[in-house]
Every structure is written in C-alpha cells, then in structure tokens.
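Let's study a protein:

===
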Amino acid sequence: MKVGVVLDRSKPQPVEDFDLNLFFVKEVTGSVRRPLDNAINIVTCFNDNKAVGEDLGLAAISPQDRAVRGNEKHHFLWDWICPTNEAYRRKLLDLIRETSRANIAGLRLDGVQFAGEEYCTCPRCTSMRSRSSLGWGEWKSSVITEFVKEVSGIVKGDLSLLADPDPCSTKESYGLDYGALSKYIDYFIVPLLDTTYSTVYWARILARCFRRQIKAPLYIQLYAANPGMPPLKNVIGAAKVVSDYADGVIFETFDSPTAKGLRQMMIPTKQE
C-alpha cells in the first residue's frame, strides 16, 4: 500500500519515506502558488471563494438558490462555480498548463464536479442539456468527463481526482461517472475526514462502498492537520481500517513534524 502526505502550504518540504508528496497550487480560497517540483500538484477547480466573491454570476444555481456559503439548505463550506462557464474553464486550463510546465510528479484535480443534485440550472446549462437530449445524470457526467479528458491531454505524469465522499447517486448529483473518468484518471482519492477518528466503522463502510464503484486505483485521504486532534494513533487506526479497500492512504497534515511522526508510525505497516 502506498502512503502520501499533503505538504505545508507556506514552506513545503518533501518528507522522506512517503510515496507521494502533494502540494496545493490552487485552493478553495482562490489563492494560487508556484508549482512545487517533484510533487503531486493540486489544482482546486470549481470551488473558488475569491472568484465568486468578485463575480456572483459565476456561482452554480438551482431553481431556488445559489451554491455558495451561507446557503441555509446545503450549508456549503465553499462557493461552487458552474462547470459550464467557458471563460472560467479556460482560466483553469491555462493554470494547469502553466503548472505542468514545471518539473512536477503529477497533478491532482479537486472540486471537479457539480455542486449537488439540483445544480446547475442556469440558462447556459439548461440550454446545453436540452440540445444534448441526454438525461440529467448523463448530461452532467458528460460535462465533467469532457473537462477531465481535456486536462489529461495537458498533464505530464499521473493525473488523479478527488471524489466527493458521497457514494450515492454520483452521476445525478455530481456528474461523476467513475467508469468513464477511469479512461483519463490514473487513480481516485476519497477524503474521509474526521477530527477524532474515535470510531471508524463509518470509514470502513464508505471505503468499501467506493471500492465497489471504482475499479481504478483508489486512495483514501485522512485528516491529521490539527495538532493533537485527532490523536495520531487514531489516524493510524483509521488507515489500517480503510487499507482493506484502498491502494493507498494520504494524510492531510500541512505540517512536516506531524508528517514525520506519521511516517515513523507507518513504516512497520508499510513493510508488512
């Protein structure tokens, strides 16, 4: 089983004995950094709080509301941009091209999906779907798959994708067709994040559900970014539980000392 770590944003230093070092080039805040050589560089795509803050018209909409923070029904943690907005897509592709010119080990796409089952019903999406003659889920998945296909023609090295940790109705809700996407994605990553991991039966259930859906290599991402919470021994316990269904585990630490502590605890597991 491979083991990866998400590096410190401000002072990223690759950590030895990890198979994958990951680094955020673009985050949900909209902040963009220079690519990091010899790392998996992460580009957050259709989540962008800054862009929506500057232009609310970018946000995905439903017949009732917008997919933004403050939404009282869905309680979104960040703002969602409509995936069919061509101008924004071009900016993303330009950033991905620029990132791929660096000496990167690969690229990970975050937030490549629709915001949820009701989204997006803007006039552009409504017109595109009508012209396609496809059902709701099939049309949404065609939009997302086409974007990923275009990215795959740009990126050098492995291309991975962070999937929403909801295994239900993935095409209708998010436009994620794992079978179609597997033609362009080398491996998928599912974040199963918790602040304690005091119980982990739910992580086992979700990992098993995703394993049944995804035939490509599957990695589970676990949270370890708050010093002392969750306790590292609990994080390792969660890693052991999901390893029955995953090809690898990625620790979200953003902190080199924590990453090194996990590395020491994981070395025996990696050698088993």
Summary: The CA atoms of residues 262 and 268 lie 11 Å apart. Strands lie at 2-6, 20-26, 40-44, 106-110, 158-162, 187-191, 218-223, 248-252.
